[in-house]
Amino acid sequence: MNAMSPLAAGVTITELAPTVRIALRLADISTAPGLALPVKVGERSAEGGRTVLCLGPDEWLIEAPEAGRDALFAALGAISVPHSAVEVSDREITLELEGPAVLTLLASGCPRDLARMPTGSGARTVFDSAQVVVTREAEDRFHLTIWRSFAPHVRAILDLATRELAAGL
After folding, report:
1. Where are the alpha helices (DSSP H) in the chain?
2. What is the mean pLDDT of residues 47-72?
3. Residue 9 binned pLDDT confidence (cut-offs 50, 70, 90)
4. Nearest 10 degrees: CA dihedral of 60, 20, 92, 141?
5. Res. 152: pLDDT tops 50
6. Which residue of 39, 128, 150, 164 has the smallest Cβ count within 10 Å?
7. In degrees, to the nearest 5, what angle opens at C-alpha 158 toward C-alphas 168 and 3?
C-alpha cells in the first residue's frame, strides 16, 4: 500500500493492497452457486471479504482478498454452463479517495454525477480519458479502480486537481 499524506484540499489518496479480481461474463446467474451475484447494474454485494459489482446485464467484477482465492476459484469452477471468468488482478490498481472534498476532486475528471451514487454501489465510467470503475464506500470515501497502464495519467490529473483545490481555484 502506498499512502499519500492528507492534502490541503481535504482528501487523502491511498493505493490499496492488491486483490484477486475476476471479470465474469455469464448469461444465467442461477448457474453460479455460491457467488451471490447482484442482478441490477450498479448494485454490489459483499460477503466474507468478497465483493461483486454488477457492471452490465451479464457482466460482474468480483474482488476477493488473496486468502479467498481458492474458494473463489472453486465457486467459479462449479459453473456448468458456458461463461467467461478472466483473472484481471495484475491489470488494475485501486485508489481510495477519502475526505470532505472527495466529490469535488472526482468531478475534476469524471463526468458522472457521483453525488447521486448511493453508498455501496458502483459503476464503470471514465476519469479524464481512462476507463475506471468507481465504487462509493461511504459518504466521503470512494474507490477508483484503474488499469495499471493508465494509473500514472490518472494520478497526474488527481495531483493537479488537488493542487488547484488547495489553492482555491
Report:
1. 69-77, 102-107, 151-167
2. 93
3. low
4. 80
5. yes
6. 39
7. 110
* For the chain, domain boundaries: 2-16+91-167, 20-90
Residues 6+ apart with CB under 8 A from 96: 12, 13, 14, 15, 16, 137, 141, 142, 143, 144
Rg (CA), the chain: 17
DSSP symbol at 28: -
State phi, psi for 28 to the nearest 5 degrees. Answer: -125, 105
CATH topology of domain 20-90: Alpha-Beta Plaits (3.30.70)
Q: Which CATH class is domain 2-16+91-167?
A: alpha beta
Give the span between the Cα atoms of 71 and 64, in whole angstroms: 10
At 103, is the secondary structure helix, strand, or coil? helix
Q: For the ranges 5-14, 88-97, 100-109, 148-157, which has the lowest average pLDDT?
A: 5-14
- Whether residue 128 is predicted with pLDDT greater than 60 in this model: the reply is yes
What pLDDT is stored for residue 13 in this prediction?
94
